[in-house]
Amino acid sequence: MLSGGPEDYEGTGNGTPAQFSIIAGDTGTDIAIRLAEADIIKSSEAFIDAVLARPEQPDFHPGTYQLQQQMSASSALVALLDPNNVLAKTVMIPEGTIMKDIFTSIETSLEIPLADIEAAAADPASYGLPAEATNLEGFLFPATYTFEPGVDARTVLQTMVNRMFQAFDEHGIAEEDRWETVLLASVVQREASMRVDFPKVARVFLNRLTIDMPLQSDATITYGTGNTHIITTTDAERADASNPYNSYVHHGLPPTPISNPGDMALEGTVHPADGEWLYFVTVNLDTGETVFSNTYEEHLVAVDQYLAWLEDHPEYLG
Hints:
By secondary structure, the chain is mostly helical. The chain has twelve helices and six strands. The chain has helices spanning 28-37, 44-52, 73-80, 99-110, 114-120, 153-170, 178-191, 198-210, 218-225, 235-239, 263-270, 296-312; strands spanning 17-22, 63-68, 89-92, 144-147, 279-284, 289-293. The chain has a two-stranded antiparallel ribbon with strand order 1-2. The longest helix has 18 residues, at 153-170. Belongs to the transglycosylase MltG family.
């Protein structure tokens, strides 16, 4: 320590492990003060000086870090900027992900055995789900989650369910309406791609339900077959009545949710667009361009446009 400078420890610590959490929104000063309070560094001033001495402003990322007690301010700063010292784990769930793929992501990202995840999910009623729910499908909100070291499967799943309940409240979905809303939103999530189309897709399905017309969603079929990575279906699959998720044969909503919907799907389902459309088809899978039609004749023209595009892009056929 230089004479007259801030108090500082020397070296990389005394060997005693210390966990330190950076919270979203923390400034360098916030971090410095808490480091000093935890005796990880000698003084907050020394840490602030170390930050200011760098040629560029350091970028601190939220998470829990493994440090030591009584580190020099500069070594503590270096440790906090090293991603190898992060203890907290993050798992990202994209919109429309199905439950089994979420379980795989949890297993991979959080290093929780799949058997533990499945066991924790075995009693959906214990999570406060509607009585109709036979599993957690549809109720695991798609988002990015950060968990502390050693988190258990039950805590992870309950966090995701609680986040979905929060979304229900934010979208004004009453408890008695949650089941049917999630059923439809899960289909809308898989069928719509552009933000502007979510309320339109919801309206198409609601119009069909009103006149008892089959939903005719390929996404429901692929959920039933397990081929959810493929966007197209065969004539045989569309004729297979043994698949309870075949919405070409079976009328009404699918028996369970077919994905985990996000905010856009929930909002589109709760506030559908005004329109008389009965058909839609995405004519460009790269851009998400979708054509909505009132009549079957108009729809056939759009389908020809889609088939022509698909012929030029065979990689989408799986």
